[in-house]
Amino acid sequence: MSRTLQSGYHRPRMLRHVGRFSPVRIQSMHYQSGRHIRLLLQPGRSLYDALVRPLQAIGVTSASTTILGGHFDHLEYCVAPPDPSGKAVIAYSSPIDAGASFMVFGNATLGKDMEGRPLVHCHASVRVEDGSVKGGHIVPQASIIGATPISVLVTALEGFELRQAFDDETNIPLLKPFKES
Amino acid sequence: MSTTETTRVVITESGRMGRVAYARIAPNEDLVQGVEKMCLAEGFRNAFVRGGLGSLVDASLGTRDGGYQQISGPAVEVVSIAGEVRSGADGVPVASLAGIVADTDGNVYGGPFLAGWNPVCMTFEVTLEEWIPDGEEPA
Description:
The structure holds 2 protein chains of 2 kinds.
Chain A: E1 2-5, E2 26-31, E3 35-41, H1 47-57, E4 63-67, E5 70-78, E6 96-112, E7 118-127, E8 133-138, E9 144-145, E10 150-156, E11 161-167, E12 172-178
Antiparallel strand pairs in A: 3-10, 4-6, 4-10, 5-6, 5-8, 5-9, 6-7, 7-8, 11-12
Chain B: E1 15-25, H1 31-42, E2 47-56, E3 59-62, E4 68-71, E5 76-87, E6 93-102, E7 108-112, E8 120-133
Antiparallel strand pairs in B: 1-8, 2-5, 2-8, 3-4, 5-6, 6-7
GO molecular function, one term (chain B): DNA binding
Domain PPC (chain B): 15-139
Keywords (chain B): DNA-binding
């Protein structure tokens, strides 16, 4: 839903989250330089495997990536409506089957989940099987690269790592930067 | 200003990439101002966005007639983003960010993100790469 506003006084909406407000609003870390890699996502593999395995093989476990346009044999995505349970402000929907799709542009973050396994967080815009353009949170394990490899620009993060940690304020696990363990 | 005065416009700027920073911006912080504050925190004068994804409470995107389009959430997901940060002589970083957002039905909208009008819903992850023009040393 959208509306176009031309005049009058409006203000952006804030939300009250379930947990205690954290005084730290921007958690950032930096390193003296970035390491760049061109990665080709291989046909027939899941987006998760095609991103994680080749990077793992060259020692990259935390990265920010730009996925350039490319075909998927199958793609699933979620949207983020309000959480009916009230445990958090929003919750991901059940996966939506987009069928054979063309990813117009995507960004994916690579980090580690709470158990130390590779985690891919990907948002993208997609031309779905019925021809409409949609966007959302891509399900990387369920989305399968099509017949042509897809180029990805990887900015590997060094000097610190991205780990999923439980966030008290939003009451969900989130990726955050930490000093390397 | 006299008619003989001209404004110097730099069309090309040579330089190099410097440091790389990653930030998690917390709920209710503005996306655009959050990126600007991240540059203040990290000491970046100029930077390019290398990646960004997350959710907004509602999104406000500029329209061609000077108005804006508000996409109602929560949450509106940012699914594509590009942009840069530039600092003027006063050292204040100004972020120019544009992108595509998706509403709770997955429908997409695009345009420039208005500063102050794009509050983060759950989290926003952003990676910036510092841009160092030739002749300037990093802060």
